[in-house]
Every structure is written in C-alpha cells, then in structure tokens.
Design a protein that fits this description.
heterodimer; A: mainly alpha; 18 helices; globular; disordered C terminus; B: mainly alpha; 6 helices; elongated
Chain lengths: 577, 207
C-alpha cells in the first residue's frame, strides 16, 4: 500500500476496503488482474445484452401486426441483423469469457492467467467492436443482411454497414482466439501440484473444450470474412456468381465456425451448471468423467456438423446424409450431461435459491431446444421448416433457454464470491419467474408459426399468423421487464448486500477457499487439495467445513477458513479419487 | 525470489497432506513458447480456411484455372522456394549458436536469415510486376494474389521479428544460452511461414 493510499484510508477509516475490493476506476483501465478483466467482460456484455434486447423488442413490436406499421422494412432488417450479431458476439461469447477469466485461475489455484497482458488486450477489443456496430445504426448505414451476411445479398446491400460488420467480427474473433490461447495454456500448465485432470472442476473441462473449439474454428470465419471484404471493397468475385465465384463456399466457411459457435456459446454454461447443481443439491456430481469427456466429444463433433445449416443450399445428397448423422450423434454426449445433472439432483437436498432455479430452468429449457435440434437434423424435416420460425424457436430455446439462463445461474452462484455480498433471493426469484414466463410465451408459439410456414426475416406477413405473433410480442415484453429486478438487485446488493464471507454455499471448489472478493494473486500460498471438487456427503466433507485450505499454516488467520484435519488416506492419494 | 527458511511445522504439514507445497511468490515457469505453439495453430487454421476455399472453387468450377488465364512461370517461384527453405536451416543455425552462448554467431545467422527473407519478398514483388493478370482478372487471379499476399504479409512480420531480435541483441548479455526466448520464438514462427509456403507453392503452381 502506497503512502498516498495509507493517508487516504487514515482519513476515511470506515471505507477501508475488503481484501480484493477494487476502486471503480480499475474497471475502466487496462488492468491485468484476471478478476478485474472477468468483471469487465461480464458488465460490458450485459450492457450489450440490454441493447440487443431493445432491438429484439423493436423487432417484435414491428411483428405485432401483419402490416409494416412501426419501422420501415430496411430498419427492420438492420434491427434483426444487429440483434442477432450483438446477442451472439457481444453478450453470450464475452460473458463466457468473463466467467472463464474470473474463475479459471481461482479454480486451479493459480495467481493469474498465463498471459495477463494478452488477457487485457483481448478484453479491450470488445468495447470498440460493439460501439462500431451500434454506431453503424446511428450513421444510417447499418448492416442488414442478417447475422450470417450471406453473399450475394451482403454484396448488394449497404457497403459501409457490411464493412463495419466485418471489422467488428474480425475484432471480436481475434479477442476470442487470444482469450482461448490464454485459457488453454493456463489450464494445461498452471494447475497446482496434485490437481490432475480428474481433480479439475468441470467448468475447467468445459472451458478447455470450448477453447479448443474456438482455436480451430474461429480462424476459418476470419478467412471467410477476409475474402468477403475483398469482394466488397476490392472488386474480386470470390463469392459473386456473376464473376465466376461461388456463394456456397462462403456458407461453408461461415458455418464451419458458426455451428461450433453454438457449442462455444453453450459449453461454458454446461460447465457452470455442473458447478451449480452439486453445490445446491449437496451431492457429488454424478458421472464426473462422463460429463468431462462429453464436453470433449461435443467439441469434436461440433467441428464436423456445419453443413446441416445448408441442407437447402444445393449440397449433394451424400454430404447431407453425412451431416445428418454427425448432427444426430451430438445428442448422445449432450444427453449424458442432462442425465448426469438429473441424477445429481435425484435424492439431493435441493436448495431452491436463484442459482439453482436458473440451473434447473436451463436443464428443462435446453432439453426442449435439443429435441427440436434433433428434428432439424433430419434432412426431410429440415427442408420443410428451413428459414421458418421453427428454426427461430429452436435457436432461441438453445441460446436463450440455454446460454442466457446459464449465465444467470452462474451470476447468482458466483456473485457472493465476486462482490463479497449476498444477492437478494426474493428478487432473484422474481427475475426467474418473469424470465421463464416470458421465455416460453415468446418462443414456444414460434414452433407452431414455423410449422404453419411463416418465414423468418420478414416485416410483413400473412394475416393468418397474426394472433400467434401478438402472443410472442407480449411475451418478449415480459422478458424485457424481467431484466429490471435483476439490474436493481445486482446494483443494490453489490453496494449494500449482506456480507457473504468466504464460502456462503459451503462449496468445495478452490475459489471458495479464498476471500470474497479474492485478493490480488488469489491465494496466500499454493492451495493444497484435500478433497475432490464435489465430495458432498462423503466422509468429512458434509460437516459444513471445507477441507481444502488456502494455506494450512495460516488456517487460524484472518483470511482463512477453519478446517478439520483431512483423512490422511484420502489426502495421500489424490489421484485415486 | 524470496529466500526460503526451512519451517519444521510447515514441512510436517506438507508431509501430512502428501503434497509438496511450493513456497510463496514462486515465479511462474515460462509458458510463452507453448503459447506461441497454440497461437500458430490458430494461424494455421486461417490458412487452412483459405486453402479450403481455394480447393472448393477449384473443384466446383468446370475449368480451372478459368479459360484464358496466362500460364504461371515456375523458375522464379521455384528459386524463391529453395531460398525460403534454405533460410529455415540458416535460422536454425542462429538458435544453435545462442544455445552455445555464441552471440556473434547468432547475430550473423539472424542477419543472413533476414536477408534471405527480404530476397524472397523482392522475388514476390518482381513476380507481381510481371504477371499478366491483376487482382480482379478472374477467380484464380484473385485467389492467387490474396493467398500469396497473405503469406507475404506473414513473411514480412517474420523478417521484422528477426530484425527486432537483432536490435535487442545489440545489448551485451540480452540473450544468452539461458535466455533466448525471442530467438526461439522467431525461429518457430519462421519455420511455420516456410511450411505454409511449401503448401501454397504446391497448390498454386504445381497442381
């Protein structure tokens, strides 16, 4: 502590910070602490979620009636393009990076990420990319070719808007790749002695799988965007059939990334749910290894399914068969996760707090998305509903019902650790109830719309679809309202909430063995593993006293937790767990 | 590095836990080379995406290159290929030299590598000025310029990295047999660039 800081605290003794508490200016600076960066990602992505949500409600308001009576078709096209781009690239992906940045070093006992400065660079690519995208709406030439930007449509619509979209995505893709390099190196090289791969929390397995997927697929999107930008700016004709090019090649490059992107968006939250459910069920996770390996399986399979988005793009029949089969196979590792979570909850002492409610909501809703996913994997059915609202329903059950509910479960679970304060449970439950009602009211009826044949991405539609669209619109308003208690709750609780202590959930993963919020460099020494990450109900682990301690020598110190003596037979053979 | 005093209580606790705890403030081992390898996987995938697109265009169009495309000369690119491959061995000599603490030898080999890289780039520019097609002539022409240009950009970055290492090495003792990450990183990157060119040469000139 510098002399100036000493002077400052002397003048205001009541404001002496908790260990790990930060000045608000830290969050607006080029800070290299992974915890600051994690929160920077989370708050930034949440702001973009609100912006993307407003765009969604403008789209839904336009669709409330069959007529084009709220915004023009051009504005409508820009709104759905930006809504999708923002929700995917500026909310869900950076939120996953936020949790990974915050939690990975804490969970493996490291002081920070392998490359802290690289980490800060990766974060600071996100705000300019987002602002650039939103600025395009303000200057009046926003991208409007959908979040997929298929040529030749993207080549004949607004040039400036498409250029902005490409630059934004190249920035966000680079950020994603740099983050993944950091996660992979940190997870592979910086685990504490004694933490083998099978002592690693499942969130870490999920982030390992996600990072491998990002590393292999995002560069191919970058390659496609580079070629698209040459077509846009330099007069080449890679994807322009009038010049001998082939637009289907763009679709292959785009979906080679963007279907793995679905798993890049869901795997981190599969990992988060694997942390939340055992803690609030007070049971060991069921099928630890099966869950861990299913993340790897999903990553691998995620790389070889991309053309199922192109069943109507003239892909040859034999290729459609291959992609149909590989797509359906993904249901197996995904099902393994679902059943393992259910088995973990089975017979458990379930705490119906906000984190657990969102986790259970996640599981139920994602299953609905998964079922329609298998339906869409079948070529004959997909040809029928391709580019209809059935697809919109599916992707929102997977991404909103999956990733977004997963984000909220993770926020409610780790909020006490990140802020040192408890979040208000009543308002968390209000948030949950409104979210579930709004989510199902908005997206469930879309399945029927799709089966009836309503195309997506149209501002004007046949009046026979009017009633269902009106229901969807009112559902989206409920979703918008559901965010308000959450925002107020987070701000109020961060400022005035009850002190959390180090381990309010009596959890066993390492992040709960240090202070809330964690001090700089996280642990006073090298943490010592004495139990597995989910040994609830096993011998000694359910006494309410975690057996891992940041520093056994200092177990009586001010920042430590009390601990019982570990069983030597257990501690001596960590690999056998 | 903080000096350590043996603490009997701590030692006993360590034994009791069955895991050796390392002292406070232990410096992290250097993961930069491993990080570079991971980064190069991502770089490799960008090229793979571009190569995949090229092969897709080639396989879906009835005539390749499109009718009327002038023939590519092989002599100059062939010489350039030999030059670039040879420069990888020269670069390896620099790494070998520094590992023997031979700073002067390292600097000499690095300078030669940078020169060979610059010669490669000059050969590329010369070829561009003599080609009978431009960027927008047809699909093959566009692909040719984008692929070789993107690779040329990577060669340029490699040359700049080598020059940066040379610049830093002017300070005595900056690199040694124990401290030579910069040289090793530049070497690995250079080998990567070389391998990419061999693939590219095969795709564009030989197939």
């Amino acid at each position: 502590m510098t002399q100036a800081q000493l002077q400052e605290t002397a003048n205001f003794p009541v404001l002496v910070p908790e260990p790990g508490e930060r000045h608000w200016r830290d969050y607006f600076s080029f800070n290299t602490d992974h915890k600051v960066i994690g929160l920077q990602y989370l708050v930034t992505s949440f702001i973009f979620y609100c912006i993307g949500g407003v765009m969604a409600d403008l789209v839904r308001t336009e669709l409330r009636t069959p007529e084009v009576d709220f915004v023009t078709p051009e504005v409508y096209n820009s709104l759905f393009t930006l809504h999708a781009t923002i929700m995917i690239f500026l909310w869900i992906l950076p939120a996953g990076a936020g949790f990974a940045n915050y939690l990975i070093p804490l969970m493996i006992g490291a002081k920070d990420m392998a490359f802290p400065r690289l980490n800060a660079v990766a974060f600071w690519m996100v705000p300019p990319a987002g602002l650039l995208l939103i600025a395009s709406l303000v200057v009046g030439d926003a991208p409007d070719a959908g979040w997929t930007s298929y040529p030749p449509l993207s080549l004949v619509t607004g040039q400036v808007g498409e250029g902005i979209w490409i630059i934004s995505l190249l920035l966000l893709g680079t950020s994603s790749i740099l983050g993944s390099i950091n996660f992979l190196v940190t997870l592979l090289k910086m685990r504490i002695p004694g933490m083998g791969f099978h002592q690693m929390p499942l969130f870490c397995w999920a982030m390992f799988s996600t990072s491998a997927l990002v590393l292999l697929s995002t560069p191919v999107l970058a390659a496609g965007l580079i070629l698209l930008s040459f077509d846009l700016i330099a007069g080449t004709t890679f994807f322009n059939p009038t010049g001998g090019g082939d637009p289907v090649v763009y679709q292959h490059m785009f979906w080679f990334y963007s279907h793995p992107a679905v798993y890049i968006m869901i795997l981190p939250f599969f990992g988060a749910i694997s942390e939340v459910i055992p803690v609030h069920s007070r049971k060991p996770i069921f099928g630890y290894k099966a869950i861990a390996y299913s993340s790897l399986a999903i990553s691998f399979l995620g790389l070889i399914v991309w053309a199922h988005h192109m069943f109507t793009s003239g892909v040859p029949g034999w290729l459609r068969m291959f992609f149909m089969i590989t797509t359906m196979i993904i249901a197996v590792p995904t099902g393994i996760k679902i059943f393992s979570w259910l088995a973990t909850m089975w017979g458990g002492k379930i705490q119906f707090n906000s984190a657990m409610l969102f986790a259970m909501g996640f599981v139920g809703t994602f299953v609905i998305g998964g079922i329609s996913g298998v339906m869409l994997a079948a070529v004959p059915f997909d040809i029928h509903v391709h580019d209809t609202y059935f697809v919109v329903a599916h992707l929102h059950y997977v991404l909103f019902g999956g990733s977004v509910l997963g984000i909220f479960a993770a926020i409610y679970h780790w909020f006490p650790k990140m802020t040192g304060r408890m979040i208000n449970e009543f308002w968390g439950q209000v948030h949950f109830a409104l979210t579930i009602i709004g989510l199902n009211m908005t997206f469930l009826p879309m399945h029927k719309l799709g089966l009836m044949g309503m195309n997506r991405r149209v501002a004007q539609y046949d009046p026979k679809f009017a009633l269902i669209n009106e229901i969807c619109t009112y559902g989206s308003y409920i979703l918008a309202v559901s965010t308000i208690p959450f925002i107020i709750n987070v701000i109020w609780s961060w400022l005035y909430g009850k002190k959390a202590g180090n381990n309010p959930w009596r959890a066993l993963t390492l992040e709960w063995m240090t202070t809330s919020p964690p001090a700089i460099e996280n642990f006073e020494g090298i943490p010592v593993l004495a139990t597995g990450p989910y040994d609830y109900g096993l011998e000694k682990a359910d006494e309410g006293v975690p057996l891992s301690d940041p520093d056994p020598v200092l177990s009586g110190g001010p920042n430590s937790v009390l601990r019982a003596e570990p069983d030597p037979a257990v501690a001596a053979n960590p690999e056998d767990r | 590095m903080q000096s350590q005093t043996i603490d009997p209580a701590k030692t006993e606790l360590n034994h009791h836990h069955g895991v050796e705890a390392v002292g406070h403030h232990e410096a992290h081992p250097d993961h930069r080379l491993f990080g570079l390898f991971v980064f190069l996987i991502a770089e490799g995938m960008i090229f793979l995406g571009l190569f995949g697109a090229y092969l897709a265009f080639r396989s879906t169009l009835p005539v390749w290159p499109p009718a009327g495309t002038p023939e590519l000369e092989l002599l100059l690119p062939g010489v350039n290929t030999v030059n670039l491959i040879a420069s990888s061995f020269v670069m390896h000599n620099a790494d070998t030299a520094i590992k023997k603490n031979d700073t002067r030898g390292m600097r000499t080999w690095l300078a030669i590598t940078a020169a060979m890289g610059a010669i490669f780039l000059c050969g590329q520019v010369y070829e561009y000025t003599h080609l009978e097609f431009g960027l927008t002539t047809n699909l093959f022409a566009s692909a040719f310029y984008v692929l070789t240009g993107f690779h040329g950009l990577h060669v340029t970055i490699g040359v700049l990295a080598i020059v940066a290492v040379l610049w830093r090495s002017r300070k005595k003792g900056h690199y040694s047999s124990e401290k030579h990450f910069g040289i090793e990183a530049a070497e690995i990157y250079w080998h990567f660039v070389d391998v990419i060119w061999i693939i590219l040469f095969g795709l564009l000139y030989l197939l």
